[in-house]
Protein backbone atom coordinates (compact mmCIF):
# COMPACT_ATOMS: atom_id res chain seq x y z
CA UNK A 1 0.00 0.00 0.00
CA UNK A 2 2.87 2.36 0.78
CA UNK A 3 4.35 1.73 -2.65
CA UNK A 4 1.08 2.77 -4.28
CA UNK A 5 1.06 6.03 -2.32
CA UNK A 6 4.65 6.74 -3.34
CA UNK A 7 3.83 5.94 -6.95
CA UNK A 8 0.86 8.35 -6.86
CA UNK A 9 3.02 11.07 -5.28
CA UNK A 10 5.70 10.46 -7.88
CA UNK A 11 3.20 10.75 -10.74
CA UNK A 12 1.79 13.96 -9.21
CA UNK A 13 5.30 15.40 -8.95
CA UNK A 14 6.01 14.46 -12.56
CA UNK A 15 2.81 16.19 -13.71
CA UNK A 16 3.65 19.24 -11.63
CA UNK A 17 7.17 19.33 -13.10
CA UNK A 18 5.80 19.21 -16.64
CA UNK A 19 3.28 21.95 -15.81
CA UNK A 20 6.01 24.15 -14.31
CA UNK A 21 8.28 23.67 -17.33
CA UNK A 22 5.40 24.59 -19.68
CA UNK A 23 4.64 27.70 -17.61
CA UNK A 24 8.31 28.68 -17.61
CA UNK A 25 8.51 28.28 -21.36
CA UNK A 26 5.41 30.44 -21.88
CA UNK A 27 6.86 33.13 -19.63
CA UNK A 28 10.17 32.98 -21.47
CA UNK A 29 8.47 33.39 -24.85
CA UNK A 30 6.40 36.28 -23.53
CA UNK A 31 9.50 37.97 -22.14
CA UNK A 32 11.33 37.57 -25.45
CA UNK A 33 8.44 39.24 -27.25
CA UNK A 34 8.39 42.11 -24.77
CA UNK A 35 12.13 42.59 -25.10
CA UNK A 36 11.75 42.74 -28.88
CA UNK A 37 8.96 45.32 -28.62
CA UNK A 38 10.34 47.55 -25.87
CA UNK A 39 14.02 46.72 -25.84
CA UNK A 40 13.94 46.25 -22.05
CA UNK A 41 13.35 43.09 -20.02
CA UNK A 42 10.29 43.03 -17.82
CA UNK A 43 10.59 43.25 -14.03
CA UNK A 44 8.52 40.52 -12.40
CA UNK A 45 6.41 40.88 -9.30
CA UNK A 46 5.92 38.18 -6.72
CA UNK A 47 2.28 37.76 -7.74
CA UNK A 48 1.53 34.87 -10.04
CA UNK A 49 -0.16 35.71 -13.32
CA UNK A 50 -3.07 33.85 -14.86
CA UNK A 51 -2.16 31.63 -17.79
CA UNK A 52 -5.52 32.30 -19.43
CA UNK A 53 -4.86 36.04 -19.55
CA UNK A 54 -1.44 35.29 -21.09
CA UNK A 55 -3.13 33.30 -23.85
CA UNK A 56 -5.50 36.18 -24.59
CA UNK A 57 -2.58 38.61 -24.73
CA UNK A 58 -0.67 36.22 -27.00
CA UNK A 59 -3.61 36.10 -29.43
CA UNK A 60 -3.63 39.91 -29.61
CA UNK A 61 0.10 40.01 -30.28
CA UNK A 62 -0.08 37.75 -33.33
CA UNK A 63 -1.01 40.61 -35.65
CA UNK A 64 1.62 42.87 -34.09
CA UNK A 65 4.23 40.16 -34.53
CA UNK A 66 3.37 39.84 -38.20
CA UNK A 67 3.71 43.59 -38.65
CA UNK A 68 6.97 43.71 -36.69
CA UNK A 69 8.66 40.98 -38.70
CA UNK A 70 12.23 42.24 -39.03
CA UNK A 71 14.89 41.64 -41.64
CA UNK A 72 16.95 39.75 -39.08
CA UNK A 73 14.04 37.36 -38.50
CA UNK A 74 13.68 36.87 -42.24
CA UNK A 75 17.41 36.11 -42.56
CA UNK A 76 17.17 33.55 -39.74
CA UNK A 77 14.17 31.92 -41.40
CA UNK A 78 15.86 31.95 -44.80
CA UNK A 79 19.09 30.44 -43.44
CA UNK A 80 17.08 27.63 -41.84
CA UNK A 81 15.50 26.90 -45.23
CA UNK A 82 18.91 26.82 -46.91
CA UNK A 83 20.22 24.45 -44.24
CA UNK A 84 17.24 22.15 -44.83
CA UNK A 85 17.85 22.22 -48.59
CA UNK A 86 21.53 21.36 -48.20
CA UNK A 87 20.78 18.48 -45.84
CA UNK A 88 18.17 17.02 -48.22
CA UNK A 89 20.56 17.54 -51.15
CA UNK A 90 23.37 15.80 -49.28
CA UNK A 91 21.06 12.91 -48.38
CA UNK A 92 20.05 12.58 -52.05
CA UNK A 93 23.69 12.74 -53.14
CA UNK A 94 24.58 10.09 -50.58
CA UNK A 95 21.87 7.73 -51.86
CA UNK A 96 22.93 8.42 -55.47
CA UNK A 97 26.54 7.62 -54.60
CA UNK A 98 25.45 4.46 -52.82
CA UNK A 99 23.47 3.37 -55.88
CA UNK A 100 26.47 4.13 -58.09
CA UNK A 101 28.78 2.17 -55.80
CA UNK A 102 26.39 -0.80 -55.79
CA UNK A 103 26.07 -0.84 -59.58
CA UNK A 104 29.84 -0.57 -60.12
CA UNK A 105 30.38 -3.35 -57.61
CA UNK A 106 27.90 -5.55 -59.46
CA UNK A 107 29.66 -4.81 -62.76
CA UNK A 108 33.04 -5.64 -61.26
CA UNK A 109 31.73 -8.94 -59.93
CA UNK A 110 30.34 -9.82 -63.37
CA UNK A 111 33.70 -9.01 -64.96
CA UNK A 112 35.54 -11.46 -62.75
CA UNK A 113 36.17 -14.80 -64.35
CA UNK A 114 34.22 -17.35 -62.38
CA UNK A 115 35.86 -20.48 -63.74
CA UNK A 116 39.54 -19.92 -64.33
CA UNK A 117 41.88 -22.81 -65.17
CA UNK A 118 43.59 -24.31 -62.17
CA UNK A 119 40.94 -23.15 -59.71
CA UNK A 120 39.61 -25.82 -57.43
CA UNK A 121 36.39 -25.72 -55.53
CA UNK A 122 36.73 -25.31 -51.77
CA UNK A 123 36.18 -28.38 -49.63
CA UNK A 124 35.30 -28.95 -46.00
CA UNK A 125 37.74 -30.54 -43.57
CA UNK A 126 36.84 -32.84 -40.67
CA UNK A 127 36.04 -29.89 -38.39
CA UNK A 128 33.69 -28.35 -40.94
CA UNK A 129 36.01 -25.51 -41.93
CA UNK A 130 36.50 -24.49 -45.53
CA UNK A 131 39.78 -25.46 -47.11
CA UNK A 132 40.55 -23.49 -50.25
CA UNK A 133 43.74 -23.56 -52.25
CA UNK A 134 44.05 -20.03 -53.54
CA UNK A 135 45.81 -19.21 -56.76
CA UNK A 136 48.02 -16.24 -55.89
CA UNK A 137 48.15 -15.06 -59.50
CA UNK A 138 44.38 -14.62 -59.49
CA UNK A 139 44.46 -12.86 -56.12
CA UNK A 140 47.17 -10.47 -57.36
CA UNK A 141 45.19 -9.84 -60.54
CA UNK A 142 42.07 -9.05 -58.50
CA UNK A 143 44.00 -6.74 -56.18
CA UNK A 144 45.62 -4.86 -59.06
CA UNK A 145 42.31 -4.42 -60.89
CA UNK A 146 40.64 -3.13 -57.72
CA UNK A 147 43.52 -0.71 -57.10
CA UNK A 148 43.35 0.51 -60.69
CA UNK A 149 39.60 1.16 -60.58
CA UNK A 150 39.89 2.84 -57.17
CA UNK A 151 42.68 5.09 -58.47
CA UNK A 152 40.65 5.99 -61.60
CA UNK A 153 37.56 6.82 -59.53
CA UNK A 154 39.63 8.87 -57.11
CA UNK A 155 41.16 10.85 -59.96
CA UNK A 156 37.74 11.49 -61.52
CA UNK A 157 36.23 12.63 -58.23
CA UNK A 158 39.29 14.79 -57.57
CA UNK A 159 38.90 16.46 -60.98
CA UNK A 160 35.20 17.09 -60.37
CA UNK A 161 35.85 18.49 -56.90
CA UNK A 162 38.67 20.68 -58.18
CA UNK A 163 36.50 21.99 -61.01
CA UNK A 164 33.71 22.86 -58.57
CA UNK A 165 35.92 24.52 -55.97
CA UNK A 166 38.70 25.87 -58.17
CA UNK A 167 37.58 29.35 -59.17
CA UNK A 168 37.52 31.88 -56.36
CA UNK A 169 36.33 34.60 -58.76
CA UNK A 170 32.89 32.95 -58.99
CA UNK A 171 32.36 33.19 -55.23
CA UNK A 172 29.76 35.97 -55.44
CA UNK A 173 26.65 35.19 -57.42
CA UNK A 174 22.92 35.69 -57.15
CA UNK A 175 21.63 32.55 -58.84
CA UNK A 176 22.89 29.69 -61.00
CA UNK A 177 22.70 31.62 -64.26
CA UNK A 178 24.77 34.42 -62.72
CA UNK A 179 27.26 31.85 -61.42
CA UNK A 180 27.62 30.35 -64.91
CA UNK A 181 28.07 33.80 -66.42
CA UNK A 182 30.75 34.71 -63.86
CA UNK A 183 32.54 31.41 -64.53
CA UNK A 184 32.47 32.10 -68.27
CA UNK A 185 33.93 35.58 -67.71
CA UNK A 186 36.64 34.13 -65.49
CA UNK A 187 37.58 31.57 -68.17
CA UNK A 188 37.76 34.27 -70.83
CA UNK A 189 39.94 36.43 -68.59
CA UNK A 190 42.30 33.51 -67.99
CA UNK A 191 42.53 32.91 -71.76
CA UNK A 192 43.40 36.55 -72.43
CA UNK A 193 45.98 36.55 -69.61
CA UNK A 194 47.69 33.48 -71.05
Automatic annotation (TrEMBL):
Its main location: nucleus. The keyword Nucleus applies. It is found in: Nucleus. It comes from the Eukaryota. GO terms for cellular component: spliceosomal complex. Pfam families: SYF2. GO terms for biological process: mRNA splicing, via spliceosome. Keywords: mRNA processing, mRNA splicing, Nucleus, Spliceosome. Belongs to the SYF2 family. May be part of a spliceosome complex. This is Pre-mRNA-splicing factor SYF2.
Amino acid sequence: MDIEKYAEKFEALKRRGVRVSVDNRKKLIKEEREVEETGKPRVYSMKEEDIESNDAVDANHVKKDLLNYSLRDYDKWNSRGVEKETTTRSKNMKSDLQDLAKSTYDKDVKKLVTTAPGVSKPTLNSRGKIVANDDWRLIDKLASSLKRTARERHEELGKKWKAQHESSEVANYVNNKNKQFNAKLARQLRKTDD
